[in-house]
Amino acid sequence: MRSQVYGGVTDEDPRTDAAVATTRRKVVMYGDTIVTTYFSSTSGGHTESVENSLGGTPKPYLVGVPDPFDNVSPLHRWPSPPSFTAGQLGSRLRLPAAVTEVEVLKRGVSPRVVTVRFRTADGGATELSGNSVKARLGLLDTWFWVRRSDRPAPPEPAYNRGAGNTPATPVTPRPTTPVAQPRPGLKVGDFLVVASRQPSLRDAKTVLRLVRRARPGALVIPRPRGAAKVFLVVTARTAARGVATRERDRLRALGYASTLARAVAGDPAVVLRTPAVSGTPVAVRYRVVAADVRLAGRARSVAVRLRATGRRATVSRRWTKARGTRYVVVTLRGATPARARAERAALRRLGLSPRLEAVRS
Fold first, then answer.
1. What's the CATH number of domain 284-360, 3.30.70.1070, 2.60.110.10, 2.40.50.140, 3.40.190.10?
2. Fewer C-beta within 10 Å: the chain N or C terminus?
3. pTM of the predicted model, to two decimals?
4. pLDDT value at residue 274
């Protein structure tokens, strides 16, 4: 049955009503045992045996089988395969150094990865499960191959549906920065899911740290805006508008004022991780910085001016290695996005150059 979602009374159909009625008080049995059955929205064309996916002992009624009807799913083929440098792989996989070689040791009855070995620049080797790699890299599935972006794509290795243990050809990841041009399968006009737009790279990186708690594959992408730039915190890139819209709505449920944008030449691939790490919404709040100056006297002068308008302006000192000692004047803390934007607009009318800093409430 392809029907997967119950849309309410208005979506009921006589055929599904009949199916429910005829299976009332019936359960799935294997011998004398009531079996546990599982559901997934997308199989990629072949399901996987339980011991290679959820773990545990093999079950004769939970074995991988072909699924010829899966091609109706928008994620039957990954819309935006992810791309990493050797250093990024080492960091995100929590390895001691950059990755120099990847070798798939075992695949399941489908081509899903069961075990993979990573060799690193320090000479070490680490074996990880396919599920660990999926979680740490934010992949859609364990059904993946690895190739260098500066070499032709190798053919997908054959796999034995019975034995489920065929190693793939080792592939060395590219140890440099990602290429600027879109990789095969990506094109200009793809949909980007933008969790936030910020006027400075510093502010964008602040928001990025929050977004990555729910979307580890998020990136910051600069965009020209007149003579200046705006920085987009992007969580996904896909050619499917429906997939992008669902991701945008998920981010809005997590508290981000997310929007859609179009990809341009040079945009990198972005990991699409649709399930949230946690079901708890992330409440995004902002502090409004009215002034960021080098002199304490100048900061106090701005604060006095703002207090005369009825605002609660506070001055604090910050030090960073890049900018040294600075004095910031803050008028709002823990403000909602709408309240923070309104305050920023009001401060601009007073001749200041305010900015928003995202914080987690």
1. 3.30.70.1070
2. N
3. 0.43
4. 45
